[in-house]
Amino acid sequence: MTDTTRPRPKLDLIVIDCPDALELAGFYGEVLGWQLEDGADRDWATLQPPGGGIGPDNPDGHTAVAFQRIEDWVEPTWPGGGHPQQMHLDLAVGDIEAAEPAVLAAGARVHEHQPSKDGGFRVYLDPAGHPFCLIR
């Protein structure tokens, strides 16, 4: 049984490694419509969801996404290979076909491997090569 009396942490920030934090934050900011936090640069950039903040400025638990530059970045080799994905984001949309043009215009690529049997999701690569999915 879950103990409901003790305080639970809130997921505050998801950090994604990449070769250029500002570039990748710009991509996801355009796709999601989220705002770039002041002070962003090539090494670290944070996107805020509408109504969100981070740390103590985040009482409602809105999760933000940050990007950190890794000097020796290696693009993931999904679905297999020597450098697997390690994480990916699923972005919910009502209609994948209708949402796809904006994602591609922002800089995404359609991945060659599409494992969905029923069309419930489509796999893309962001500008740094991370797989992400549009799901319905």
TrEMBL record:
Name the PROSITE patterns on file. VOC (PS51819)
* Domain (VOC) ranges: 10-136
CDD domains assigned? VOC (cd06587)
* Protein name per Swiss-Prot or TrEMBL: Glyoxalase
User: Which species does the entry assign this protein to?
Assistant: Luteipulveratus halotolerans
